[in-house]
Amino acid sequence: MTRTRHLTLVTLLLTMTRAADSQQPPRPTTLAHRSTVYAPRGMIATSQPLATAAGLAVLERGGNAVDAAVTAAAVLNVVEPPMTGIGGDMFAMVWSATDRKLYGLNSSGRAGSLMTRDALLAKGHATMPQQSVEDVTVPGALGGWDALLRRFGTVTLAQALAPAIGYAQDGFPVTPIISAEWSAEVAKLRKDEGARATYLVEGSRAPRPGEWFRNPDLAGTLRLIAQQGIGALYGGALGRRIAERVHALGGYLTVDDFRNHRPEWVEPISATFKGYRVWELPPNSQGVATLEMLKILEPYDLKALGHNSARYLHLLIEAKKLAYADIAHYVGEPAAMTVPAAHLLTDAYAASRRALVDPARAADRPAPGKPMTSSETIYLTVADSSGNIVSFINSLYDAFGAGVVVPGTGFALHNRGAGFTLEPGLPNTVAPGKRPFHTIIPAFVTRPDGTGAEAPWLSFGVMGGSMQPQGHVQLLLNLIVFGMDLQDAIDAARFRHLEGRQVALEAPIAESVRHALAALGHDVTPDAAVTFGGAQAIMRLPRGYAGGSDPRKDGMAAGY
């Protein structure tokens, strides 16, 4: 099909859909209303108010964006434990105002030296186990926090950990959404001795909204790290305790695996879209999917299709399927990849994938072109008065990760190894020392400043496993194509493609749109059990910043 005929058919079907849309009144267009936050000097947006307050206090005392980001991340370890902690991994991008350059950090941990495909197959696994101690890989987050502070920070790791230690020792009231997420994992937490003792009130239930919760074991762990540095975990007594416990439960880590962990500074990858340059981190993360989706979508007149119309959503869903087929086949540990991420972002490759989009019918499971997963995650972003900006993400993968807490440590171990595949011969095939395919992706956007250089415009992320690239694209289109206010762009209803032809739509999307998508072959599934991500964002203004925080989370944006 030629490009002209292709786009003409889209327009024709758009007219038919608009006629259907006019038959009943639309639902509300947003989930809730918050005002965009504006501030003259600095801004922080996180998924929990105490973390936002802790980071903001750092900025107000003269600390920079990196100082505030690590401080807030440590507090989130305490107050949002289903999602994040030093038992997980982290990635970040840092815009250095001094260098006028974007830096990338990959602090994802590697598979243990005993995690082999043969070992997993010998235990009877046909696919990677889920939410199991067998999925525990080296936790990389703490090493990443330390690397950020050493390169760009002005405070010590001990200073950054101090507010978190206070909340862990003295306690805090649990917020409503976090309480609900916690409650959903009670059965999982009961299965592990350490998790039950650490995270269940009286060993039986989650804390209720507003109920005070303390984690003195985590306070002790963080004090140990403040005193001894990250070596306590990476090769020291704390790492040894974890390795021994994981091995005793059937996992694959050794003390040397902890000792060998090294965060990696990487070059972010990018693609242009409508005059903006969108930045993601390179594999082993799935950020390339966001960029490939944007490349596929750029030639369409998306604004003419109408925001969240059936035709508009259909194109986004089909682009998502194509990009995800590619990352499932080509993306994994960079050293094992045979197709560089850059090859998936060429104009010619995007055109070849775009040609497969049928404007009149939903695809089932597209094959990868020629040349995955759930996630419990926090995203935060910080900007300071000097113009430094941090885009930061930290995750346990599933809620409370593997559901394993080494008794006395106070934090859950992630199950990121579930992101591997047992299918042989792929970049993401499980093997000792490999980093698994990662869902968590911080994002950044720049635009030309008039002198030929790039200037920062937006730092943002959308939490939620495989929701992340499709959430990134939807938020960006809300801003760039439809010109929405920052908070409105975050609030706007989202779709989430699941698998095959299954897609979930948030309630504000009209019934007529649902019927039109079904007529195109989409299986519009109930959204009750589906999460649609949680965004945080900061936009650089000519003077000062704008900030937004997702009403789907308990968080807030605040500035000074």
Descriptive overview:
- The protein has one domain: 4-Layer Sandwich (Glutamine Phosphoribosylpyrophosphate, subunit 1, domain 1).
- The protein is built from 19 helices and 21 strands.
Bin the strand percentage. 15-25%
Strand sequence of the main sheet, in spatial order?
1-20-19-15-14-9-8
CATH superfamily: Gamma-glutamyltranspeptidase, small (S) subunit
Mean pLDDT: 91
| Oligomeric state as shown | single chain
Largest sheet, in brief, is: 7 strands, antiparallel
What is the terminal-to-terminal distance? 54 Å
Structural class: alpha+beta
The percentage helix is 25-40%
Overall geometric form: globular
Rg is: 23 Å
Number of strands: 21
Examine the coordinates and then state which fold CATH places here, giving the name of the CATH topology.
Glutamine Phosphoribosylpyrophosphate, subunit 1, domain 1
Defining traits:
alpha+beta; 21 strands; Glutamine Phosphoribosylpyrophosphate, subunit 1, domain 1; globular; disordered N terminus; single chain; 7-stranded antiparallel sheet; 19 helices; 560 residues
